[in-house]
Amino acid sequence: MGTENPGRPAYPGRPATTPFGAPPPPNVRPFSSTPPIPGSGPSTFRPTTAPPSQANTPFASSGPMAETEAPGFQPRPPSTFSNPSAAPPPALPSYGSPAPGARNFQRFSTPQFTQAPQGPPARPPTMGQAPFGTPPAALVPGAPPAFRPTANVPAVPMGLPPQRATYAPPGGSVPQLPSESVPSVPRPNFQQSYPAADPSVPTGRPTVPPLFPGYPNQRPHAPPPATLSQSPFAARPAGDVPAPVVASPFQTHQGGYVQPHTVPAPFGMPPRDPMQHSASGPPSNAMYGLMEDFNSLSIGSVPGSLDPGVDSKALPRPLDGDVEPTSFREMFPLNCHSRYLRLTTSAIPNSQSLISRWHLPLGAVVCPLAEVPEGEEVSIVNFASSGIIRCRRCRTYINPYVTFTDAGRKWRCNICSLLNDVPGDYYAPLDAMGKRVDFDQRPELAKGSVEFVAPTEYMVRPPMPPLYFFLIDVSVSAVRSGMIEVVAQTIRSCLDDLPGFPRTQIGFITYDSTIHFYNMKSSLTQPQMMVVSDLDDIFVPLPDDLLVNLSESKTVVETFLDSLPSMFQDNVNVESAFGPALKAALMVMSQLGGKLLIFQNTLPSLGVGRLKLRGDDVRVYGTDKEPALRTPEDPFYKQMAADLTKYQIGANVYAFSDRYTDIASIGTLAKYTGGQIYYYPAFQSASHKEKLRHELARDLTRETAWEAVMRIRCGKGIRFTSYHGNFMLRSTDLLALPSVDCDKAYAMQLSLEETLLTTQTVYFQVALLYTASCGERRIRVHTAAAPVVTDLGEMYRQADTGAVISLFTRLAIEKTLSHKLEDARTAVQQRIVKALREYRNLHSVQHRLGGRMIYPESLKYLPLYGLALCKSTALRGSYADASLDERSAAGFTMMALPVKKLLKLLYPNLLRIDEYLLKPSASAQDAESTMKARLPLTMDSLDSRGLYLFDDGFRFILWFGRMLSPEISQNLLGHDFAADLSRVAFSERDSEMSRKLCALLQKIRESDPSYYHLCHLVRQGEQPREAILIMSLVDDQIGGTSGYVDWIMQIHRQVQQNA
């Protein structure tokens, strides 16, 4: 890929056809709308015409007070999130009859206010509204309500017809209410009378039966009324006093969730907020008819071309990285942090038909041992003799969403609604609010994440000690690459930091054409090596002394590691008996389990599990035989993985080779044992030593959960149907994880068991039972709640792009194991197209969309991440774009990555750093600003006079512009500043600028320590080395693949088909 223009490389022309699949077949979905509904609220817009007056149809919201408004506004019926078993308030009588042609609405009587209302402040009336006057007679205590003729009100034109009768307003248009006790904004009233109140209804607040027997049904003491922002959509609850109206200090924004009026929770929980879930459809009043609850891109003509196009600079890009969703915890403050559990949408559909219109994956991404967010902690709870409190039926652990009743003697499970007895040791009375008096001292009731100390009944056997077993290839290629020396030095340096001291166990096996065992008994002065050459009948000599306690035999272990590189420095054996060595390791570890670290440098060639070279036949690619190259050739490895899992052994594979080693087969060991793949192509210790040393040291010293199992429980009517990641599925919903750490995440898909969900809230609980390195058996529990909605638009508004892409990635990679790469890329594109087409249909009736491409704010980066996924190493191109081992290793790695690391790998950071390096006294704040000033991944972002840093979480690429100041190059590279950068190793030089750059790189590495960022040097125009950066510029059209603009145009054309 040479360059003719000195400023930028030459690119092939744009592809004439869609490289990721043909457009989908037309899919016409019927879309209905309803005629305009005469509303009752004033419009805030000036009318353009004066049509004849329309008869006002009095109607009431489903709250306890009936309000009437001018035409053009249709209120939403409020609903609350409460326990499904709560009794609803009694229905009150309705008054009047609907106007002809209008829909029937339920009417409620108007209860009398208990205190005098406060009038609004004097201010000029809003355009199109009558001036404010005295309150209506119905609002003044003692004034008898009666029907009177309607006053003359200027007619306001109706908005475009809605799709359905009700609609949830967009999140950005209504300010959130700060607390339950704050009154809502009064609406100006244009009717002169209210319906007569039912004498059976007492004055003041209507009496509502308690939600659960045995609990007081009263509100908490309310703070003084607060001043509210002006909003034409806020409803006033009965009994609240109107507050002064002021101009809103908040700017409206697109998307987002609006938190409605808060209701008290008298069950030992903080106040919860109700949600309104209305039928899908666009806004229906005059104001909403002009507002747009979505983002859009204008597709117009490009200057100099007749073809439609889009401005590249206007395209949304995630230059702030992954922003963890906050609405999840804002709706339910007691939820666990999104770092542990992320839903693809935090609005759960209530029906199968709604799921069928969602088109995106519906599920969750779980990282049970994620690093604790700053400022938080996971409390450890020990119930001791009383035992862990769990539901008798569904075995849910006690959590913040359970409710207490019968004066604290019983608690109701939030998952299955069963009423359980409270053990005597756990009993506490309830206060006047229905909350346990010891609520603040109970982390399991106040926090969404907690860790229980498990009693003995949770143990099949005594907790295992942390065990590390090393299986090391010592063939000639391993010796010459320097791998053995680096591995031995790193293990020795980490011996004092291995978790679990003084219980930690350790052992070693080396192999080439034979298998070498090592006796490291503490009574020996140096280890004894025993060689087994019979590969067909493997046996273990001295089974009791091959695994030793590290604290007792540390001296012998250190002696062995010091001598290991020299022991095989003259070895010329090219064979690899990996399969027999693996069986020997299983025999040694089967009594205890533990972590098996495999260092493989050669294609297995002897004994069971030997593999052959495959993938060299180019004619196979693009045919039905291609997927077989990405699956294990020999079933031996999958069977061995099952056996390792059975004995609680997790395998991590370190693969080093410049030749084919069949990672598709060997990586199966890590996939089914909860392990990880580390791939070092063409490893040489001179250049790759630091990367291997850092990643191996982190693997050895990070906190690990041993012999773990994980289960995810969810509410009635829903269940998880498929799981994706590195684990072994022991039963339909139990994941076996011999070893777990903070760098592992698991994805799963959700489905409905019932046609229609009747609950308004669903709950999820992740439970990880594991053995800690200290020897305790523990259960880490994460609990979250999510609302059930009937509105497809709300599902889109509450979508989480990171979780959606994480599930997309795992599904696409799994699809490559049985289909061609092109099929997997097409599947990703088509699901994005279907989702955006459905979203367009939601708004096409209400709004004039024209040639615009519309999308929800929550999914504005979805097309770009979809393109990045299709251009990733695991899915991109064909035979020539990535080797089989490289593609398989990337797939295994992406299957286990948490959301944040995955998104950074798909769309890396590009920073310009020469300006920072030239500052004479750069501060830490300057370094932070430089790290946040991310650029779009396109050649247009690269200035030939600049120095740029590319960071994808796994490597650094330093790009030197052709016209970069020689002073910078000389300070960073020394005497090699003019040499071919492919032969220059980056290191710290004796200059202030070099030290400043190394400090910046170290700061980035510390912010994400999972992998070591190896630094590659690239100069503009040097081929083929510059291709390692050019191929990573997602926004550009490279190698026959679409650029960002082309990708958007392809999606837009397909969305418009039958939209």
TrEMBL record:
| Keyword Protein transport in record | yes
Listed Pro residues bias regions: 21-39
Q: Which UniProt keywords apply?
A: Cytoplasm, Endoplasmic reticulum, ER-Golgi transport, Golgi apparatus, Membrane, Protein transport, Transport
Gelsolin-like domain spans which residues?
933-982
Q: Which residues form the Zinc finger Sec23/Sec24-type domain?
A: 388-426
- Domain Sec23/Sec24 beta-sandwich, chain residue ranges per copy: 705-789
Query: Which cellular compartments is it found in?
Result: Cytoplasm; Endoplasmic reticulum membrane; Golgi apparatus membrane
Major location category of this protein: cytoplasm
InterPro entries per UniProt: ADF-H/Gelsolin-like_dom_sf, Beta-sandwich_Sec23_24, Gelsolin-like_dom, Gelsolin-like_dom_sf, Sec23/24_helical_dom, Sec23/24_helical_dom_sf, Sec23/24_trunk_dom, SEC23_SEC24_subfamily
Q: Where is the composition biased (Polar residues)?
A: 51-60, 106-117
Residues of the Sec23/Sec24 helical domain: 800-903
Compositional bias per record (Low complexity), positions renumbered to this chain: 93-102
Ranges where the Sec23/Sec24 trunk domain occurs: 463-699
Membrane recorded as keyword: yes
Q: Where is this region: Disordered?
A: 1-239
Q: What is this protein called?
A: Protein transport protein Sec24-like At3g07100
Question: From which lineage does this chain's organism come?
Answer: Eukaryota, Viridiplantae, Streptophyta, Embryophyta, Tracheophyta
